[in-house]
Specification:
13 strands; 6-stranded mixed sheet; alpha+beta; binds cobalt (II) ion; about 35% helix; 7-stranded mixed sheet; 2 domains
């Protein structure tokens, strides 16, 4: 959709725009000087859970994630909201409170925002952060031999859609909410400490869609080992009940021809890798010699990290 804009905004006219439409990434990056660049992103979406507070918190964590995925530190944000005129003001207040308290946890100040009326609620943040331009993490920074590390389990889409259809167990929803309200701050910090150059966060295009963005921008292939990929406890059960959100079929359609699955993987397993995530984890391409150090630090700071595969020469994704 943004493609026509790249002929209007030519990157050669904006030498300080380090990451823009020419190399689509999690966030835009604008150089201020040799050691500092601004990271800029926005994201908003419709409710994924029933509790207004949790919805606000998840939306904020998700918006902040794109700054962490670039190796940046967010510091300033604006609310962006669309709320039904007949919505109980207490509910609107809870959504905004959830977002605000998540921002506080991230060390971010919300300095304003804009709200319009709309039938279906939408909420998120505009976020500004700083990054050291020489340490920016981009989708184009993965190299063959890097290990692929994922920092949250998958299965948020299939679990929250089961909730919408009133088929989800409360403990499964609580588990999903626990992960979705977890900031990617520590995961981003780990990546920076380990000198990671390639990475992204896993959101609407699912592990495979975002994995392909990483692979294609870096001109490499990815090999994933299914049995090493972490899932929420209920994910398998809901996948078998086929409570996938509509986005999962869209992802399948867009990305399927670039993915090779081992014959042993059944349809539910494959679809779980196309399941759209909200506020998902970081997918990092970690240089092999830095992996042990990263995993050790991860354990020390209580940051989950799963090694799910590796970067290889070639193109596309193989899942075995
Ligand atoms: Co992103
Ligand atoms: Co985003
Ligand atoms: Co305004």
């Amino acid at each position: 959709m943004l493609r026509p804009l790249s002929s209007i905004f030519k990157s050669s006219d904006y030498p300080d725009l380090l990451v823009g439409l020419d190399s689509p990434d999690d966030a835009a990056v604008w150089r201020l000087d040799d050691s500092r660049a601004l990271v800029l992103t926005t994201d908003f979406f419709t409710p994924v859970v029933d509790e207004p507070y949790d919805y606000g918190a998840i939306a904020a964590a998700n918006s902040l994630s794109d700054v962490y995925a670039m190796g940046g530190t967010p510091f300033l944000a604006l609310n962006i909201a669309a709320l039904p005129p007949d919505l109980d003001p207490e509910i609107s207040a809870e959504i905004l409170r959830g977002g605000a308290e998540m921002a506080v946890r991230a060390g971010v100040v919300i300095a304003g925002g804009h709200t319009v009326q709309d039938k279906e609620p939408k909420y998120g943040l505009v976020v500004v952060g700083f990054v050291d331009p020489s340490r920016t993490i981009t989708k184009g920074g993965a190299r063959p031999g890097d290990c692929l590390v994922l920092t949250k389990p998958l299965g948020f889409g299939v679990t929250t859609t089961a909730l919408k259809r009133q088929q989800a167990f409360p403990e499964d929803v609580a588990e999903a909410v626990g992960w979705m309200t977890r900031l990617n701050r520590d995961a981003g910090r780990l990546a920076l400490e380990a000198g990671v150059k390639g990475g992204t966060d896993v959101t609407g295009f699912a592990l495979l869609g975002h994995g392909l963005e990483l692979a294609n921008a870096s001109r490499v292939g990815l090999r994933l080992h299914f049995e090493r990929i972490p899932f929420l406890s209920g994910a398998r059960k809901y996948a078998e009940a086929w409570t996938f959100p509509g986005g999962a079929s869209d992802n399948l359609q867009y990305f399927e021809d670039q993915v090779k699955f081992a014959a042993s993987l059944d349809e539910a397993s494959r679809m779980l890798l196309f399941d759209p995530q909200t506020s998902g984890g970081l997918l990092l391409a970690v240089p092999a010699e830095r992996l042990d150090g990263l995993l050790q630090r991860a354990a020390e700071i209580d940051q989950p990290a799963w090694v799910i595969g590796e970067v290889i020469e070639g193109a596309g994704i193989e899942v075995d």
